[in-house]
Design a protein that fits this description.
alpha/beta; 60% helix; binds BIS(adenosine)-5'-pentaphosphate; binds magnesium ion
Length: 194
Amino acid sequence: MLGIIFGPPGSGKGTQAELITDALGTAHISTGDLLRAEAEAGSPLGREVAPLLKAGHLVPDELIERVVEQRLREKDAASGALLDGYPRTVPQARALDMVLDASGRPTAFVIFLNVDHGTLTKRLLQRAAKQHRADDNRESIAERLAEYRDLTTPVLDYYRGEGVPVLEIDGSGSVEDVHERIVEALRPLRTEAR
Ligand code: AP5
Ligand code: MG
């Protein structure tokens, strides 16, 4: 089963993806984590993307499309994967569809975590105080939210147009409450898949 977890920066994609993939036994593929690992390793790809990550800008579509295509070919993704942070533009969604069509597995669902703007900023600034993600500062957070609004939100309409179930989840409240809502929303799809 291939699913997507979708939402603005700070909506809890990574947090909830960990919980869901633990339960489903599928791979968690976070494009942000993949890119940050490259940047930390100082690889040629990492050196190319580090300034973009830091500023809160999206990296070029072709670049991330290649990274994801390669990652999906790895063994742990054979039984299924939850994509976190990808696709983030309509061209990326189309590119993913081509890859999935070729391998005969369609996108099963999109989980859309809906969280208000004030809560997003608060969560990211709280994380900034504890961890040191290069893009957790007021300027980059504003940039990430703007890129999300302008380039990423159209992806939801793309999937609705393709007939893929888009499960809109209230992403506010505790981590446990949000997880419960996701489990409930996925239940009918999991029954159907049996
Ligand atoms: P990415 O790593 O995907 O970052 P993001 O979308 O900005 O989102 P975050 O990871 O900050 O938030 P999240 O939604 O995962 O929430 P989390 O669980 O961490 O992308 C980073 C960058 O990489 C991009 O800006 C771009 O440069 C590049 N990139 C990545 N993918 C790309 C693509 N496809 N195309 C082009 N460029 C790409 O939670 C956030 C915080 O809140 C945490 O501290 C968490 O503990 C806390 N929290 C979570 N849930 C709750 C809750 N219910 N209550 C209270 N606190 C909570
Ligand atoms: Mg994340």
